[in-house]
Amino acid sequence: MGEFRGRVLSVASECVPLVKSGGLADVTGALPGALAAQEWQMAVLLPGYRGLAARIARPAEVMRIDDLFGGPARILSGRAEGSEAWILLLEAPHLYDRPGGPYLDETGQDHSDNPERFGALCLAAALIARDGLADGWRPDLVHAHDWQGGLVPAYLRMHAPGTASVLTIHNIAFQGLAPASRLHPLRLDPRDFYPGGPLEFHGQIGALKAGLVMADRVTTVSPRYAAELALPEFGMGLEGVIAALPDPVAGILNGIDKAAWDPARDPAIRPYSARAKKGRAANRALLFGEYGLEDGHGPVLGIVSRMTRQKGLDLVPGVVAPLLERGLRLAVLGSGDAELERAFEALAAAHPGKVGLKQGYDEALSHRIYAGADALLVPSRFEPCGLTQLYALRYGAVPVVAPTGGLSDTVIPASPAALGAGVATGVMLPRVDAGGLSLALSQLCDLYEDPAAWRRIQANGMAADFGWDRSAAAYAALYHGLTGGAD
């Protein structure tokens, strides 16, 4: 490949295959390889949560930090097992070696020191930019993700001025607020904390707001979501900050790792392809068995999702019963809000053989749902990009989606015009409410009863290309503009 154009440090709270709670991990895990094809070298700085160091192949210590918010820390460099991503793991046992998940403790509450845990990640990034690693590697640009990386530009301004920075918003609903009393413990510059200042948001420290205001460029994960962020119903209180940015938010659509998500080579399923779909029928039969479903001669609708109101799943129990009588079957994988979990438990109990429910998260089972379901439901009230609909398209499960964010950018709804032109790839709710969901699922059943139309929609989806090539080129162009390309 020759020399790289430049070096990028990606700062994130999760990254596949090491730690994942949502689509952010898929993106940060896929970007390094996609950018290498664009001649940009990317390392991913990740918190050293419990057990992660053992999953780094041949780790090498490349930096020590004597005091990182209450204890020593070191950075280990290596490759994640089963991945080509270059990981820089921030080992700080006093911050990360504990039970629970990346954000929540074992009782399901936020870790009380989350401001320090992710502030430390951001400060470590700035120290890498200032001092470089033991082998001399130093980034030309730091790319931070969501509120957990939001303080990166603030620390860069203090420790490595002149280092370019990019902040990507994956979900503006999570903003990383902390009491103003944490300003000194976080070692932030008090001159940046005043009403309306870079660090201040309604009297608190706002990590995401700080990143928005202080980064050289702000991006998000789809063009539609970039436009929505300036609207009160989507901006979550930050729409004014977004509108005042000197450069518009760049909407760069997420891609998927086509090697990891390939029905022809997926070890979790019976392989098949767009040209040879026999294996898909076998996966469908296996899904019936796994979920205890009875064939109603209608479409099998999969749901792979966190159970939250954002995802629109509260609408499902109230509208699905009449459609079950039309032959619709439901296979659900998810967990989250306790009330929603109980609602789906009641739905499954009321309709045995028609609704199957598995709670929690199971990566292999999610692949089997994409491969065996006829359709996949994503009725989100807002969805910055969404990856589940992209996996569904690739696997031949017709997506049923809400008209928002990246869902609108990636699914061509089966309108009469799109059906007539032969370009439809899915079904879109006319609006995100019970009536809109009912109309969309009725249309899904109608389409399923027209085998020729169904095959065309399914084939269109499987032929769509949502790999990383175009998006990686857009990121590379953005980096080049901020750094001069280091050619």
UniProtKB/TrEMBL annotation:
Its signal peptide is: none
Q: Which reaction does it catalyse?
A: [(1->4)-alpha-D-glucosyl](n) + ADP-alpha-D-glucose = [(1->4)-alpha-D-glucosyl](n+1) + ADP + H(+)
Checking Pfam families in the record gives: Glyco_transf_5 (PF08323), Glycos_transf_1 (PF00534)
- InterPro entries per record: Glyco_trans_1, GS/SS, Starch_synth_cat_dom
Q: What class of enzyme is it?
A: transferase
Q: In which pathway does it act?
A: Glycan biosynthesis; glycogen biosynthesis
Q: Which GO terms describe its biological process?
A: glycogen biosynthetic process
Q: Which GO terms describe its molecular function?
A: alpha-1,4-glucan glucosyltransferase (ADP-glucose donor) activity; alpha-1,4-glucan glucosyltransferase (UDP-glucose donor) activity
EC number(s)?
Answer: 2.4.1.21
The Starch synthase catalytic domain sits at 7-243
By its UniProt entry, which SUPFAM superfamilies does this protein fall under?
UDP-Glycosyltransferase/glycogen phosphorylase (SSF53756)
Q: Summarize where ADP-alpha-D-glucose binds, as residue positions.
A: K20
Task: Provide the Gene Ontology terms for cellular component.
Answer: cytosol
| CDD domains per UniProt | GT5_Glycogen_synthase_DULL1-like
UniProt keywords (A-Z) are:
Glycogen biosynthesis, Glycosyltransferase, Transferase
Q: Which residues form the Glycosyl transferase family domain?
A: 297-455
Q: What does this protein do?
A: Synthesizes alpha-1,4-glucan chains using ADP-glucose.
What's the family? Belongs to the glycosyltransferase 1 family. Bacterial/plant glycogen synthase subfamily.
Family annotation (NCBIfam families): glgA (TIGR02095), PRK00654.1-2 (NF001899)
Q: What is this protein called?
A: Glycogen synthase
Q: Which organism is it from?
A: Mangrovicoccus algicola
